[in-house]
Amino acid sequence: MVLFTSFGYILFLAFCVFLFYIVKKEYRALILAATGMIFYAYYAGWYVLLIFAEARAYFLAKYKNRYLFIFSIIISIFLLVYFKYNNLLLGRFNFPKYAIPLGISFFTFEFIHYLVDAYKGKIENPVLKDHLAFVFFFPTMLAGPIKRYQEFVPQILTSVFHWDNILSGILRILIGFFKKIVLADTFAMLTGNLVYHEFILSAEPIDLALRLLAFGFQIYFDFSAYSDVALGSAKLFGIIIPENFNWPYLARNIADFWRRWHISLMSWFRDYLYKPLGGSREGIHITIFNVLIVMHISGLWHGSGLNFLLWGSYHGIFLALYQIYKKIGLPTWPRVISIPLTFLIVNLGWAFFSTRGADGFILIKQIFSIFF
To answer: Are residue 112 and residue 208 in the same domain, yes or no?
Structure first.
């Protein structure tokens, strides 16, 4: 998302922050909604109408009708599947195909969260302008973090201008710029060839290993950079949104990695998929089944190719093995072993994320040929 590191984004952000603080507090939600509409319409054109269609959640949630609730959830999932996976699912048919709307994976999950929590009574007396501010808050619309209505909306009125927020927000944005422009883009120069089947077959194994390692750092700095810009942008408004990364490459095991990586997404999966499926309450077999379901869907959430499904399967298998390991009651390994081992497992998994189709298997095989 180069737009987040553009000069135009900074000017637009500064203008929006200025408007936010000079209007009366009761108009702040309208400012966030209007500026978000302009922002999304500028970059995504007519797809802004799709968000308005999804924003029907406000009206449906007020009625708390079971059938309307189920119907709305189905429509949200259908729109996500159709727009994001139409080329994969309908590629052999003559159905009309469209570009993927910017941020659809993120704002669809926020809509589903809103619908579920409102239906359960966790969101009381929602106000339309607050709902639109939540939906159209532009720092999080395209790349997250995935926020929660109950945590976000009260801050609109309670936020006060303070230089500490401005300075810390600017610093966080600059950190994000550094991660993206200096670190992620530098590592990206080493990783582009991993999408070519012929390159994977012909390159030296040590070269492939180094490029895959570079990809692991590229995707971390790339994704966490956008989160930093979003967090810093929100802080300028005096609003705190969820953190997304917590030193994931220092995780002690694969479960710890997923508690540190893309935190807002995994907490969404935990609350709106894993727990409703039964979580870990029904024994080890159901736990493993639920973990595999969540990770397969997580893989597909990241992209529509076979490689993303394989990446989700890879992590699902290791998470299942970890659950079995805990169930047996085997001892915890010391950090000097567990952290490097987890890092190795995670970075080998990027072989599926960085390639096309099933080339991840070939890439891993080529790398392991260093030792055999």
So the answer is: no
Shared domain for 135 and 223, answered yes or no, is no
Three-state DSSP at 269 gives: helix
Q: Are 224 and 358 in contact (CB under 8 A)?
A: no
Computed on alpha carbons and rounded to an integer, the radius of gyration of the chain in Å comes to: 22
Domains in the chain: how many in total? Answer: 2
* pTM for this entry: 0.92
Asked if 353 and 243 sit in the same domain, the reply is: yes
Please list, in sequence order, all residues whose beta carbon lies within 8 angstroms of the beta carbon of residue 235, skipping any fewer than 6 positions away. 165, 168, 169, 172
- Residue 231 CB partners (closer than 8 Å, separation 6+): 145, 172, 241, 243, 244
Burial 29-51 (b: 16+ CB within 10 A, else e): bebbbbbbbebbeebbeebbebb
Residue 91 reports pLDDT greater than 90: no
Question: Can you read off the two tokens belonging to residue 311?
Answer: 């990446």
Q: Which domain holds residue 86?
A: 2-159
Instruction: Judge if 178 and 41 occupy the same domain.
Output: no
Per-residue pLDDT tens digits for 34-73: 999 999 999 888 888 888 877 766 777 666 778 888 888 8
Give the position of tokens 């595999």.
292
DSSP-derived secondary structure letter, 100: P
- Sequence-distant (6+) residues with CB within 8 A of 163 are none
Q: Is 285 annotated as catalytic?
A: no
Which residue, chain included where needed, has tokens 């995935």? Answer: 146
Residue type, 101: P
- The per-residue pLDDT for 155 is 96
Distance of alpha carbon 278 from alpha carbon 38, whole angstroms: 41
Dist CA 220 CA 227 (whole Å): 11
Side-chain half-sphere exposure of 355, counting CA atoms within 13 A: 25
* Same-domain pairing of 115 and 177: no
What tens digit of pLDDT does each residue of 261-287 get?
999 999 999 999 999 998 888 889 999
- 239 and 218 in a common domain: yes
**How many CB atoms neighbour CB 89 within 10 A?**
13
C-beta separation of 180 from 5 below 8 A:
yes
Segment 14-31, tens digit of pLDDT? 999 999 999 999 999 999
Cα(337)–Cα(29) distance, rounded to whole angstroms? 50
Active-site residue identified among 131, 197, 302, 315: 302
